[in-house]
Description:
Elements: E1 2-6, H1 14-25, E2 32-37, H2 43-49, E3 54-56, H3 68-92, E4 96-99, H4 102-111, E5 119-123, H5 131-140, E6 146-150, H6 153-157, E7 169-171, H7 185-194, E8 202-207, H8 216-226, E9 233-238, H9 246-259, E10 266-270, H10 275-278, E11 284-287, H11 296-303, E12 308-311, E13 327-329, H12 334-345, H13 348-365, H14 368-384, H15 392-407
Parallel strand pairs: 1-2, 1-4, 2-3, 4-5, 5-6, 6-7, 8-9, 8-11, 9-10, 11-12, 12-13
Helix pairs in contact: 3-4, 8-9, 8-12, 14-15
Amino acid sequence: MRIVFYNHTGIVSGAEKMLLLSLGNLPRNIFDLKLVCPEEGSLQEGASALGVPTYTCRPIRARFTYNPFLFFVYLLSIVRALIGIRKTLRSLSPDILQANTVRAGIVATISTIGTRLPIVWHAHDILPSHPVTTVIRLLAHSSRRIRIVACSRAAAHTLLPFTARGTPVTVIHNGIDVARFRRNPDTRTAKRKELEFATESFVIGMVGQVTPRKGQLGLIRAFADLRSAVPEAVLLIVGAPLFNKDHDYLETLEREISALRLEQNVRFLGQRSDIEAMMQALDLFVLNSDVEPFALVLIEAMTLGIASIATDCGGPSEIIHHGVDGEIVAIGDHQTLVHAMTRLAGNPSLRNEYGNAASRNVTQKFSKNQYIAEWYNLYREIDISAIPPSHMVCVANEGLDMQAGVAE
């Protein structure tokens, strides 16, 4: 089965990590995998390292906007991408085209009009309320050859059809290679020494793209209030600005830190290649986003057994069981966030309780093997719908082989 994955950008963030997880773990004796994406960023390099052939396309420069000029510019970007993708697909002749984002789904669907090519929309977005999103939903449910997969129920809800005749939305939660995220006391000691933490330091961390929706500004302000009760607290902000005006936002964060006189207590570590090791230096992980379709970094921290607090911003509420393996706070609830951080700072036994439960629960529910098996079953279902009945036995046997391999 030849599957062509199409991604609208070559920059690697959460959606692209899931794409690379699929490319690296779907069995090659069953699937012939190819990737189409722009040259920008490191996605092509990551796929090539996995032995997956890559093909270059135009990037899509499009965002939700009410500005008519910007809307025209974004539309032109999509049209150019459409022309290039249609030409590339003719040469690759896929059995399934998987669009790894909503933007990619738009281009994939329009560029294959007039064909019977099955398309999978893999949605890693919570669509906002906007006139354009109405059109996107209509397009997503415009053909029976489209299958819609969302990374969470929260994301799926924003793609629900307007009528009972629409295509149902399948939820496949993201997964991680849990073997990469194992607690190691030596690693924790080494990282805390490398980062020059005092023995008594209480280290709080957040990891993610530096952008307003991730809530770094709100966490910095909450941290300032926390320090009156926990003066030994340190805040690590890991990540970098990637898109649009995010560099301006980073400057805003730096000015706020200066105004609050937190220069010695808040550290920006930028983009890191040692996230698994670095997070082990933390005592508490905080995700303070306004919106998160899933929050991959949250399950990474929880797998490592780090006590975690997250906002009720979409996907995290499907991951954390409040009061069992972490805590959920309302978006923008400054006082509750400060109170939760202060309480956990003074209660190491509760942090350990949360961390141990989190590690068990995430390992069971969000493993790489479960993720790949669910995708395999979906591909099999799509493929069977296009296979004559006389060939069903062969497909069923391949399915048994695949499931046995995943179990191993």
